[in-house]
């Protein structure tokens, strides 16, 4: 069986700036070879083997030859291989060379285009690459030539009408600006430099050809960055978006179509996921349904496994018509409601004392409970520990929607990761969750009401406090 290679564009950084086809290829892949500039958040939803072939500017991890060779070897093993590259694979990404190599070795391949940083990176700071008043063309140029000694045609470049965008140019910034000026470009031409465009740590400066080198040095802007030369750059002043949570890098538990992810991203934050372990059903004996009692639902997943068991026994919800339903909190109550059950109460387990009660929940969580005599614990599922391939030092805040998410994450971390996690601000959705954070040694905790809106509000408030304290410095 022969495999297949997809050269896939990952877009400029923001994990939502990905094509639908790229997303599908990532999910379907057996193995993914990815670059240094690729946002690791893109790799969360796939079970593929992941190989970091990221090239650091001076000490290459994988040589281009080795990458080419690996692509061919993996494809010949029959694998679906994704070669994930920043931006668009055919814009300075060596995608052309890889295609030629694959073709020569008779390996089937395709190219999945991506949004190039050379255009979208400018848009991220409010610079339109063309504009009827300022630029009717754009030129994307590499600041890093393949063969040493080979010079760009500076005279030609300096006389082009339109916007000049240099990629891989930061080490050559002084040379680029001086060559443009020497070859006739006005030293007052606006220049913007944008580092890590659309990533959480995006930074940008605006100056002109004569002064940009100094401004970049003062602000300590480095690679990877885009150098934008032309009148359009000045539009950054008026058009740069300033979303409320810009620059915030926030971790949330992984969930497909996570509402929290969407809310935070829309407010300008960059959101990463930590993995939740897989769930597995646990065998348990259904209570005697003909004897009415109380069903205490600890979490909605537990309920789903309970329902599966009910159906497998040839019964359905009607058998529980005389039962009382209690949800542990409003979130569980809401989920139950969307499954067609209006709970009798939202309450603490302690408040159910005296009545025969069946608590359904996750195995490990229930094991921590100390119920009274009339309370029976039914673990309907267990969660396996997940591996966290995360650098916590890259984040500022983590959101915990449930005590289970705290316990699971902490139990899945190495000692070093745990130390790094302790430094983050933890937003606990509800006092119980905060209690769990303290219990496991996380002390930088802010407690909010258990609603996503409350999480958003507290993050915005914290950002405003930061702004005020910065302005007093
Ligand atoms: N294929 C990529 C470019 C690869 S060359 C694309 O289409 O975007 C690598 C260079 O791209 C970096 O040195 C930098 O100049 C630029 N680059 C890529 N992503 C960037 C980003 N998010 N912010 C700023 N520059 C970026």
Automatic annotation (TrEMBL):
CDD domains: SUMT. The keyword S-adenosyl-L-methionine applies. Residues 5-211 form the Tetrapyrrole methylase domain. Its EC number is 2.1.1.107. Keywords: Methyltransferase, Porphyrin biosynthesis, S-adenosyl-L-methionine, Transferase. It comes from the Bacteria. GO terms for molecular function: uroporphyrin-III C-methyltransferase activity; uroporphyrinogen-III synthase activity. The keyword Methyltransferase applies. Pfam families: TP_methylase. NCBIfam families: cobA_cysG_Cterm, PRK06136.1. This is Uroporphyrinogen-III C-methyltransferase.
């Amino acid at each position: 069986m022969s495999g297949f290679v997809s050269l896939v564009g990952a877009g400029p950084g923001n994990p939502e700036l990905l094509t639908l086809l790229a997303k599908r290829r990532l999910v379907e892949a057996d193995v993914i070879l990815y670059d240094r500039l690729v946002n690791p958040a893109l790799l969360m939803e796939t079970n593929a083997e992941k190989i970091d072939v990221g090239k650091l500017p001076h000490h290459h991890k994988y040589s281009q030859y080795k990458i080419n060779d690996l692509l061919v070897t993996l494809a010949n093993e029959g694998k679906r291989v994704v070669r994930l590259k920043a931006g668009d694979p055919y814009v300075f990404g060596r995608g052309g060379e890889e295609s030629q190599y694959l073709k020569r070795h008779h390996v089937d391949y395709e190219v999945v285009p991506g949004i190039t940083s050379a255009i979208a990176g400018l848009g991220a700071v409010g610079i339109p690459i063309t504009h009827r008043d300022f630029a009717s063309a754009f030129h994307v140029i590499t600041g890093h030539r393949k063969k040493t000694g080979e010079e760009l045609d500076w005279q030609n470049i300096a006389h082009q009408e339109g916007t000049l965008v240099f990629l891989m140019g930061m080490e050559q910034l002084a040379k680029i600006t001086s060559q443009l000026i020497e070859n006739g470009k006005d030293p007052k031409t606006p220049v913007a430099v944008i580092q890590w465009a659309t990533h959480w740590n995006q930074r940008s400066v605006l100056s002109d050809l004569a002064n940009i080198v100094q401004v970049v040095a003062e602000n300590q802007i480095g690679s990877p960055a885009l150098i934008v030369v032309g009148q359009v750059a000045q539009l950054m002043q008026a058009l740069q978006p300033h979303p409320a949570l810009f620059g915030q890098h926030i971790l949330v538990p992984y969930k497909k179509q996570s509402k929290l992810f969407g809310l935070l991203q829309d407010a300008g934050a960059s959101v990463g996921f930590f993995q939740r372990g897989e769930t597995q059903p646990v065998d348990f004996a259904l209570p005697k349904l003909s004897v009415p009692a109380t069903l205490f639902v600890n979490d909605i997943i537990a309920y789903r496994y309970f329902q599966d068991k009910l159906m497998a026994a040839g019964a359905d919800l009607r058998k529980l018509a005389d039962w009382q339903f209690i949800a542990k909190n409003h979130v569980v109550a809401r989920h139950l409601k969307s499954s067609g059950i209006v709970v009798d109460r939202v309450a603490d387990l302690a408040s159910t004392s005296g009545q025969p009660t069946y608590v359904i929940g996750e195995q490990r969580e229930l094991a921590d409970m100390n119920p009274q005599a009339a309370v029976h614990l039914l673990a309907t599922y267990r969660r396996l520990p997940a591996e966290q391939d995360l650098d916590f030092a890259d984040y500022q805040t983590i959101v915990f929607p449930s005590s289970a998410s705290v316990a699971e994450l902490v139990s899945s971390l190495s000692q070093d990761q745990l130390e790094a996690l302790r430094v983050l601000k933890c937003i606990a959705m509800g006092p119980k969750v905060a209690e769990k954070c303290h219990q496991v040694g996380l002390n930088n905790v802010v407690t909010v009401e258990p609603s996503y809106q409350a999480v958003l509000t507290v993050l915005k408030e914290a950002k405003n406090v930061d702004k005020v304290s910065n302005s007093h410095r």
